[in-house]
Design brief:
The complex is a heterodimer of chains A (about 110) and B (about 600).
Chain A: E1 6-7, H1 17-21, E2 28-31, E3 36-39, H2 49-53, E4 59-60, H3 69-79, H4 84-92, H5 94-105
Antiparallel strand pairs in A: 1-4, 2-3
Helix pairs in contact in A: 4-5
Chain B: H1 16-47, H2 55-81, H3 98-109, E1 121-123, H4 128-135, H5 139-160, H6 169-188, H7 192-196, H8 198-208, H9 233-248, H10 257-277, H11 282-286, H12 291-297, E2 303-308, H13 311-316, H14 321-324, H15 352-356, E3 362-367, H16 371-374, H17 381-399, H18 403-416, H19 418-424, H20 435-459, H21 466-474, H22 478-496, H23 500-505, H24 524-527, H25 532-558, H26 565-592
Antiparallel strand pairs in B: 1-3, 2-3
Classes of the chains: A alpha+beta (about 110), B mainly alpha (about 600).
Chain lengths: ~110, ~600
């Protein structure tokens, strides 16, 4: 059985913040009848983005699982709005632009 | 889905300078009140005939001075930080247009889950005063402060006051007043006690490093409560444990006030440990012995808790300040999300979501009572099991007053060798109550509920599982349990309650007369003699009728058109009637076997 995020049905309130966080594979879906989320075993990459997003710790990777941090950071980088100062730096400095690209590609930690 | 609401006005009904100054003066007034109580008690302590260097005075000042200093320093810090009116609210954010399309569609897809039952409701936040009040950061603090002071005096009174429980503030307040008021609050408002609870208040102040301001730093390790142990049953087992300990050490019996004091101080320490270790109000969920009882009985109350007025807007909200907090509010301490709340079970009425929501989309509605018991689509097995266990605890409280039980308990304690252990534990001499028969009586009720559910499953020819029947129909026992346990507390509260008049003027029994009522002799029998049994019987009957109503509604909502629904309904109604008969018989028998006791019937 693949390592996937586990949902605590007692705690899950169906706010769908984790559904939004799971932006790459869309592995999390809301169960409309029960108002809690379910994780698809085929789609979950165990990146841990949902765990970081959930305010109530209702969804988490098993304690032995190492989150796929590179994938998670690349998701964050993709969703994050660039800061103004950073945009200015990109225009003036080529190295900053390279760094940005690295983050987007998920190469840097 | 919530009913359509009126449009909330954009601006505050009060003039800006007025409420800005009120926001400054109200916390100052509360801090001054705290200081006044401090000075008053200290004055009487110094003036009392006991010498200043006695151990009593030392204990008094050793607890009194540090706690008051802590409150005052925190209050000064919060008042200084918020002097320039950081609590003001700019007005609601513009409604997201997606709410009318995507949001409405999503809510429609969950129509079955968000089912609403017809009936009138009134949203308190339509009223300008409540809207203003719930936006204040000191709203909860103002409710908590008097209670915190009272329970700190309880701790001190138990330790240094006289041993006579009827002249000691600790016993009188905790067991004669609080235990009655608690159930009235639960049945009337819901988790109102949790709003004003002094135990979690102090722990939360330490955790947040402030009394009512919104700070950025928290004094907690912020551990997440393990998923595996996220269940209500922990709280229910703590309740059962506490009830047993209370009987064993005769804390409320009335026993030594020092035990009451240690119990209260122990709960505060335990709460503090949770607060600095785990995030939010983990104690209230997974440590508080009363969480299960209060949550369950709240279902009877007509308040639905802070809840989203328009769920379509929540479906498109991406920031969720209600859960995660904002610059003027903390995230919900109770792990609740107003956008999908379907019962008031876990709403602690702290109002943080109300302050946090940028759309002003949170309301606090009042509706017909009992709705919260049958309305939720999501009914939980652990809660149902908890209700059955607590029903067992209620029946134990009735059975233990009979001589037959006393004889059986003594025999069992001697037969199982419990008596020497009880002596070693410094409990009651006869070893009462033996844990074996205590747990035996309690676990009889889940077993009984399960057998009835199995019978129901058999009636439906296996189409409906016993687990589902047990889970859903256990909610029907809630009103009977709530009013039954109130009836159980009544004799103690009504017969001993009047002693409050003396104790409030002379809390430690030192001969003080702070309010001039110390010599007001009010005897219990003037208040509760003949009619108390009839009040008990009336409460149980009302509880049973309410339970039958809830059971009927559960059948209509959850099992309509399912095989054998009508027969199962009859079975479940019969179960409620049987429980009612047992309760009535129990109360009557207790009154009957005590001739001369104020509970004995007048004929």
């Amino acid at each position: 059985m693949a390592t996937i995020a586990i949902v605590n049905h007692e705690r899950c309130v169906g706010c769908e913040l984790c559904t939004r966080a799971c932006g790459v594979t869309h592995a999390i879906e809301l169960d409309l009848q029960r108002n809690w989320v379910e994780v698809s075993e085929e789609l979950c990459w165990a990146c841990g983005a949902c765990e970081r997003m959930c305010p109530f710790n209702a969804i988490a990777l098993p304690f032995w699982a190492e989150p796929n941090k590179e994938l998670r950071d690349s998701i964050y980088a993709k969703n994050r709005k660039p800061k103004k100062s950073r945009v200015v730096a990109q225009v003036s400095d080529d190295t900053a632009e390279e760094e940005e690209e690295e983050v987007l590609a998920g190469q840097s930690n | 889905m919530a009913t359509p609401q009126q449009v909330t006005p954009q601006t505050s009904p009060y003039s800006k300078p007025f409420y800005k100054w009120l926001d400054r003066l109200a916390p100052i007034g509360l801090a001054l009140f705290m200081m006044t109580v401090f000075v008053d008690y200290s004055w009487w302590m110094l003036k009392s005939p006991t010498h200043i260097a006695t151990w009593r005075s030392l204990i008094f000042f050793a607890i009194w001075i540090p706690t008051t200093l802590f409150y005052v320093i925190m209050a000064v810090k919060d008042i200084a930080q918020n002097w320039n009116g950081r609590w003001e609210f700019a007005g609601p954010k513009k409604r997201n247009p997606l709410a009318d399309t995507v949001g409405a569609q999503k809510v429609e897809m969950q129509r079955d889950f968000f089912r609403s039952v017809t009936g009138k409701r009134y949203d308190l936040t339509q009223n300008a005063f409540f809207r203003w009040l719930f936006h204040r950061r000191w709203y909860q603090f103002a409710a908590q402060l008097p209670n915190v002071i009272i329970f700190n005096i309880v701790i001190i009174a138990g330790l240094i006051g006289v041993v006579n429980p009827n002249r000691n503030f600790a016993t009188v307040i905790t067991w004669y007043v609080w235990f009655g008021v608690l159930f009235v609050l639960m049945i009337g408002v819901g988790r109102a006690w949790c709003l004003i609870c002094p135990f979690s208040a102090q722990a939360e102040w330490v955790q947040r490093l402030g009394l009512f301001g919104k700070g950025k730093k928290l004094l907690t390790m912020g551990w997440k409560w393990p998923q595996k142990y996220s269940t209500l049953l922990i709280s229910v087992f703590f309740f059962l444990g506490l009830t047993w300990a209370e009987e064993f050490y005769n804390v409320a019996g009335p026993g030594k006030p020092a035990f009451t004091s240690m119990l209260v101080a122990g709960i505060i320490m335990w709460d503090l440990f949770y607060a600095v270790t785990f995030e939010r109000r983990s104690f209230c969920h997974y440590g508080c012995p009363l969480n299960g009882v209060i949550g369950v009985v709240s279902a009877v109350a007509p308040f639905e808790g802070f809840r989203a007025k328009d769920r379509t807007l929540c479906k498109t909200c991406t920031t969720k300040e209600c859960m995660r907090g904002s610059n003027r509010s903390y995230g919900c301490g109770w792990y609740e999300y107003p956008g999908s709340m379907s019962s008031n079970f876990y709403c602690g009425l702290t109002g943080e979501c109300f302050k946090g929501c940028p759309y002003e989309n949170i309301g606090l509605s009042v509706h017909a009572p009992l709705k919260e018991a049958y309305q939720p689509k999501k009914k939980r097995f652990d809660l149902a099991f908890g209700v059955a266990l607590m029903m067992g605890a209620l029946f134990f409280e009735i059975v233990n007053a009979t001589p037959q039980y006393a004889a059986f308990d003594t025999w069992l304690s001697n037969a199982t060798g419990w008596v020497p252990i009880a002596k070693a534990l410094d409990g009651q001499l006869s070893g009462y109550p033996n844990p074996l028969d205590y747990l035996g009586i309690i676990f009889l009720f889940p077993l009984f509920g399960w057998i009835i559910a199995k019978a129901g499953s058999w009636i439906s020819r296996g189409q409906i599982k016993a687990r589902e029947l047990f889970t859903r129909y256990s909610y029907g026992w809630i009103p009977l349990f709530g009013l039954g346990i109130l009836a159980r507390q009544l004799p103690k509260v009504l017969t001993n309650g009047p002693t409050i008049a003396q104790v409030i003027s002379d809390p430690f029994g030192f001969g003080w007369n702070m309010l001039g009522t110390a010599n007001l002799h009010m005897h219990a029998r003037h208040f509760a003699y003949h009619w108390i049994l009839f009040v008990q019987i009336a409460l149980v009957v009302i509880g049973a009728v309410a339970s039958m109503f809830v059971t009927q509604k559960i059948t209509q909502l959850d099992f309509k058109n399912r095989p054998g629904a009508v027969a199962i309904n009859v079975l479940m109604q019969g179960t409620v009637i049987l429980l009612m008969a047992l309760l009535l018989g129990g109360y009557y028998y207790i009154a009957l076997i005590n001739p001369g006791h104020p509970l004995a019937p007048p004929f």
